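User: My instructor asked us to take a sequence, write out its structure as tokens, and then describe one feature of it. I'm not sure where to start. Here is the sequence I was given:
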Amino acid sequence: EERKGEGLGKAWLFFGCRHPDHDYIYRDEIQSFLDDRTLTRLSVSFSRYTPPPSPPSLVTPTHSPSPTHTLTNPTRHAGTITSRGYVQDALRLHWREVCVWMVEEGASVYVCGDAQNMARDVHQALRSMLDRYFLERKELGIPSALSCTDSEHVLAGMKEEGRYLRDVWT
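Assistant: Let's start with the prediction itself. The structure tokens for your sequence are:
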């Protein structure tokens, strides 16, 4: 409460629950962390929520709609939500930026939740994102900030450094 985000560095929360009206129980607290800049970014995924349809447009879109949309004031929430998605979907949506935070900026990753499904799926998403990131950089001829570009070894190294922590349950 006293520090209000000062000197903490960047923080991006990927939060997931089933439905915003039923189990998004820390909505106000999370919003206050965004408001006071304790959080830099917020991505919220609701696995059992389908947003109401947008009003019909007079213009026919020339491309398929984005899989995300932004919630506005009626729910007191600012940030990206993935329609009927999971945390790993939101991570994949922002894969490049998340990898830059992890590899180049030394970000820490904290995973809390169900070990059987959510934590496993988030770990797999992180692995595939890192693989994609290292492959893209190699193809562009950009040297990696790390000596090892094997995603599983990178995550194991982060774990040893205390930068990849899992608080999971079965």
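For the description part of your assignment, you could build on this observation: Residues 62-77 have pLDDT under 50 and may be disordered. Try explaining in your own words what that tells you about the chain.
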